[in-house]
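User: For my dataset I need records formatted as: sequence, then structure tokens, nothing else. Please produce one.
Assistant:
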Amino acid sequence: MRRHLPLILLVLGIVILLMSLNNPFKEEEHSSFLIEPGTIEIVDANISSLIIETDVPLCLDARVIKISYITNGSSIQVKGVHWPLLRVRDTSTLTIDVSKGQGSLKRTYTIQDGGYIIPVDEGYWEVNVSSNGEVVIYEIETMTPVDPLVTIDTSGKIHLRGGKFSLLLINTCNTTAHVRVLKSEGEDVNIALFGLGLAIFLLGVARARREHIADSGRRGGGAEDL
């Protein structure tokens, strides 16, 4: 039994280490919402892991975003907006007209469940908004991309490792997306279990090394000089 103890400790340590890295997903928080065509939902990903369920293909973009408030209202005209971000809080029909120099873009949205709109890329734009509900206009100061770990399981659910960034869910289809986001701390590494497994594994390594040295000594002591 004593001779097999190092192997037992090594195997036990590896099993506990694997258990610490494979905690089951434990739902802490969930939310359900609609994302209308051409609009965005911004999800705070500052948690260990997320699962995203959607019935419409979405574009996912992970960013560290810094924004500043400009104004709000139902009829808005502002000039010199570097990179506009519009937030609609409730059900609303709104028309957005953005222009810069000779170029302009005008589009009407019907929003059922709130959401965000980034109508144009960077540039200094004049923004005109007409809505039957409240619209908030922000200016995007920076939007730095990040590269989180993302996997898709066989049922089509999107699994994402969280972090200190925001997740943009972008609907580029012509159909409204029904989305459910589940957040959890469950897939983070169990530090206590990881430490225990590592300690047992290192103990097994040390015992195996001592056994090897002892065996070498016994074999050497039985030899005769010629």
